[in-house]
Write a structure and sequence with these properties.
The complex is a heterotetramer, with two copies of chain A (503 residues) and two copies of chain B (165 residues). Chain A is 33% helix and 23% strand. By secondary structure, chain A is an alpha+beta fold. In chain A, the strands form six sheets. Chain A has an eight-stranded antiparallel sheet, sandwiched between helices. A five-stranded parallel sheet of chain A has the order 3-2-1-4-5, sandwiched between helices. The longest helix of chain A has 18 residues, at 458-475. Chain B has one helix at 78-91, and strands spanning 2-7, 10-18, 21-24, 29-31, 33-36, 41-46, 49-58, 61-66, 69-77, 97-100, 105-110, 117-118, 123-129, 132-137, 142-147, 154-155, 160-164. Classes of the chains: A alpha+beta (503), B mainly beta (165). Chains A and B meet through α8, β16, α13 and α16 of A and β1, β2, β6, β7 and β8 of B.
């Protein structure tokens, strides 16, 4: 049964809310944005046809409140809700409430979310199948002594992972049995905070694995296809920073084998919509099922660029009950795409989140560039939400050129007011290991040191020093527009920030 | 006017000799074509080379941004130089350090107590921010002389947390 | 012989200079920008590795001065010059001077430029070939009475066209013999001003033709391919506003036939590099050679988007002496691309150029969008140069979706300070004739009236009126940042621009 | 405060009854959530509908821009209204018009002379700008009463060129 969607409430914020609104506009579907108190002037609110205030500052009072979201949908007569990623996107109870309210939930059925959302349930479900699993528990563990015994049985190093988790949150690697207890407690706390569920489980930690994931699409008529892989091995704090498609290590045979496994995972939970099956690939090209994310992924644009498909469009069509209209044999990867995530974080200082006002946000453009961003000049990056402010994606006919294009784009990208991961991404794009394709999830610990972000060209530094002195000596305080401002406070601090006066 | 400019750790002795004209230690004079853009950005053409850079200050420290690289910047005239030199003398024997909050957040756990001896790099407290637990580490070995915060307290960026030594 | 290029001087300004610099950066080639007095802070100057002041305000004193350009190349040790489009790009003498100075001219040989640059010479050259020509003179005419006789012989309506011309400049349509003399004088004057050459010729004016052009690439080893067609029929003042690829009217057979004719034109003048062969296609699908442009075309991005090629990269490789490395059979169009040109012109007032400061320039982004622009916030659009400030290009798997994407992108695009063709492009994208593909070069006279740009939704207008009143009543003059400014002068005019005071 | 707002030719009688609160002629009250953005842009949420618009003035005329559509805007309070009504009465019988330059440029040719009778839409002079020759046309039929420019003269936007009638 086809049920045409006329108005979608986007239960999210930032770049992904903007991303969804863009596709809705192209489809002629009306959009409703929702916003917390601090997001009144955010881009998604400006772009949507309608906007409803949720109140509150923290996520729990706004974007995580299913009551407020459903009330907003009712008030605006929306007939569907798109959850984006994060927040309530993988919350089966929310999906159920949406359906019970007579609305379309743009995503899989609550049961599929439940099966895959609980990592231990998913492991149990697949343990009989041909999909390979990493050694570990198929149940969650709560007793620390029992957990320690299991860990010893698997053999250190092990991973303590949140059963309800995903995205690296609540995950801890333990190399030494002595650190196990503290790691498990931290993992449980983080899991409780992030997912409201402190259950954890233990899994074998693979040394030097690559993180390879497959995008899948499944319609409500039983058609399941994969849209090839994404390589997501460049991570900090177990969270992805750089992704690409295709992976530089997959042979066509391995791609087919893993793709088949990915569609099998989707079929096992009667999946519907866009989802991602994550694998770890070890040094011997053996792969292991890691988890399935039952939602749109942050890094979905690289897949869009090598397939020409709009995944949000496909999600909406599938939710309407439309058949996919194509099968696996119609799909062929076209060129190469890379994504760099721009986080408001300081790569010079352990990637700690930075906050403050973005004075200036100038995005690169020209051939083969895509920017998905939720930021505008003057917007505040607060402590309450994810520090990712933008995604920069490049495409070209092959990997070498896509990297060259990314280097060019990163150099053009300008963010003023907060520290970002842009210089780190520049480091990655220039690093021989990344260029050669020979790297794994330990890229940062293997190759990165903050001092490598510093400039070393002394002639350049000398010229910049001359420039800086003249700027300060001649232009400082000349007018309001020119005065040197503090990065964190836009107002000029009169207390002699610069000691030099104009001649 | 004579200045010492330190950028990215490199030091330059420069004299402003005329409008947008600089003389280096070696006596060479150089004119620079410098125009302000927006948001503290400048466009400089030196010789034929073209540069765009941004200047900003944070907590009284100055920085220059060039192609997303953030370089520490210090500009001192002769008077500044004298003062900072004297300060430096006193700083040559550091006996302790203030640990400040690297970002706004919630103190979720304090891992040490006053009087405790800590190693350099040892976690002293856990700060929860942006849904992540972040360990704050001691910048040097020493004794915890003061703890200024308590668990479940909200802190702003650069708030004083505790003192080592 | 391969001669690697290390440093390119870009003898141009605006979006095309920026476009060329971007590809050079991706290729690791150093760039030199040149600038007139008013272009000191322009984007191309900021982005290039080096920048040399040409002095002067008008084109003749700056971007048209071959002496100054060659001196700048010498000073910076550039080993090649890219002319972009316009200015000296189709000036054979300049190309010759560049070559004589020992530099690589990134474009065809001077002889090819000469042959194709003079439209009458080109017509003579092809008159013996299989390439069909429109009826008209193969020589230029200077005597107005003789010209009038020729026109009468061909039969009105006729076109008076500049021999040295291109891009619609110096062109006049004459329907009535009584208007012929004034049209010819105007054409001669405009030709003299634009090209320094007042010669004109007469050609039959085709009723309701479509403007279809083929992109060609030719290397120095004899390989010539075409990269399919571009449909450029939406024009105002004989200048293109909207272009797309592929055309919605070409059958595969006609595409092959016209493509073959295009490569034949290129072969006839021993062409080397990227060039465009323009045809008129009449209502009976008969096509006629119009002219060959011996340079990169403004609308080249639509071809890049359906082929995956970077045409500037191909130009540079060909200039280095590299072989193309692919042949016609390797090429296949992929999806559909549309370009909208953003001119600083007022579509409400006969597309007259508008000037002033661009206060704000916010480009659209997200999937399938490309913006090639030379504008930054605060930049002055002056009377001295071409009013085109930006190009917006969209891609999607088919024409219908590419149009939907363009509509979305146009709505996102925001330029404040000058009137632009953006609302006109919105009109085109929503017009049934454009959507159906059934339109010709008379689209504007057939379908466009300025009042069609006005809004007609009264509920919307009522809401905006409420918004405007509140904005003026409550926020006007509250702070410097909020005060209502004059569009042409950024400073607030204190002489009671708004009469209403805050309560 | 009572206003007449004319937008895109539509007229609205509105009364400001409280902070960001409007009362229409029909007596309905409406609150609007309005915040200023940058460059004279505003974000308005009315009911649940979201709008972004820009306000600007040119030559004393006011305009509102919404999704690239530029709409003429006139806001008058009771006093303004009275004054403009009186002006309107005098304007009901227009007898002539000033022709102004639509853009900066060079007068390349003047096609009429003082005293000449011209038709509406007839070209009166040729203005060269941005490498194009642009014909300036008479907005109405009448007699050329004054020509204020000469050939080869540079003019700015909105300079007075000639008068018809």
């Amino acid at each position: 049964m086809i049920r045409k969607i006329k108005k979608i409430l986007v239960a999210n914020r930032g770049e992904i809310a903007v991303r969804i609104i863009r596709t809705c506009k192209e489809l002629g579907i009306e959009t409703v944005a929702v916003f917390s108190e601090t997001d009144r002037t955010a881009l998604h609110v400006r772009m949507a046809d309608e906007a409803v205030a949720l109140g509150g500052i923290k996520s729990a009072e706004s974007y995580l409140s299913s009551e407020k979201l459903l009330a907003a949908a009712k008030r605006t007569n929306a007939d569907a809700i798109h959850p984006g990623y994060g927040f309530l996107s993988e919350n089966a109870t929310f999906a159920e409430k949406v359906q019970n309210a007579g609305l379309v939930f743009i995503g899989p059925d609550p049961e599929s979310i439940r099966l895959m959302g609980d990592k231990t349930t998913a492991r149990k479900l697949l343990s009989g199948s041909r999909v390979p699993l990493a050694p570990g528990t198929t149940d969650s563990v709560s007793d620390v002594n029992e957990a320690k015994k299991i860990a010893a049985g698997i053999g250190f190093p092990v991973l303590v992972k949140a059963s309800a988790g995903g995205g690296g949150k609540g995950m801890r690697i333990v190399h030494d049995p002595a650190d196990f207890e503290q790691a498990m407690t931290a993992s449980q706390n983080e899991a409780q905070n992030a997912f409201g569920d402190s259950r954890v489980y233990i899994e074998k930690y693979l040394e030097g694995p690559r993180h390879i994931e497959f995008q899948i699409l499944a319609d409500s008529h039983g058609e399941v296809v994969h849209l090839f892989e994404r390589e997501c091995s460049i991570q900090r704090r177990h969270q992805k920073v750089v992704e690409e498609a295709p992976s530089s290590v997959l042979t066509p045979a391995l791609r087919e084998e893993m793709g088949l496994a990915a569609t099998e995972v989707a079929r096992s939970c009667k999946y519907k919509g866009a989802g991602t099956v994550e694998f770890l690939l070890d040094r011997h090209n053996r792969f292991y099922f890691l988890e399935m994310n039952t939602r749109l992924q942050v890094e979905h644009p690289v897949t869009e660029l090598i397939t020409g498909l709009d995944l949000v469009r496909e999600q909406i069509r599938i939710a309407e009950g439309e058949p996919l209209g194509f099968s696996q044999s119609d799909l062929k990867p076209y060129g190469h795409a890379i994504e760099c995530r721009v986080y408001a974080e300081d790569p010079m200082n352990q990637f700690l989140p930075d906050t403050g006002k973005v004075h200036l946000h100038r995005i690169p453009s020209g051939p083969g560039i895509r920017v998905d961003s939720g930021i505008v000049d003057g917007m505040e990056v607060s402590v309450h939400f994810d520090p990712m402010i933008s995604k920069l994606i490049t495409w070209d006919v092959n990997r070498e050129r896509a990297i060259a294009r990314m280097r060019r784009a990163l150099e053009e990208y300008s963010v003023s007011g907060v520290q970002t991961t842009l210089p780190f991404c520049q480091f990655v794009m220039n690093h021989p290991a990344f260029i050669s394709g020979k790297f794994d999830t330990h890229f940062i610990s293997d190759f990165f040191r903050p001092d490598l972000l510093m400039l070393s060209d002394s002639a350049l530094i000398s010229s910049l020093a001359t420039g800086a002195l003249n700027a300060v000596h001649w232009y400082e305080r000349e007018s309001d527009a020119l005065k040197v401002q503090s990065r964190s406070t836009p107002e000029f601090s009169s207390a002699g920030v610069w000691k030099i006066r104009r001649k | 006017m004579k200045y010492t400019v330190s950028l990215n750790g490199q030091e330059f002795n420069l004299r402003v000799t005329g409008f947008l004209e600089i003389q280096t230690d070696s006596g060479a004079r150089q004119t620079i074509d410098l125009v302000p853009l927006d948001a503290n950005r400048y466009s400089a053409i030196i010789g034929t080379k073209s540069y765009v850079f941004e200047l900003f200050t944070e907590n009284g420290e100055k920085f220059l941004v060039y192609k997303n690289h953030t370089l520490p910047l210090l500009i001192e005239d002769e008077h500044d130089r004298l003062v900072s030199h004297m300060k430096q003398v006193n700083k040559d024997h550091p006996t302790g350090a203030d640990v400040k909050s690297p970002m706004p957040g919630l103190i979720s756990r304090i891992l040490v107590s006053e009087g405790e001896i800590v190693k350099k790099g040892q976690a002293v407290l856990v700060l929860e921010a942006m849904k992540m637990e972040n360990e704050v580490k001691s910048p040097l070995a020493g004794q915890v002389s003061r703890i200024a915060v308590s668990e479940k307290q909200n802190v702003e960026k650069n708030d004083f947390l505790l003192r080592i030594g």
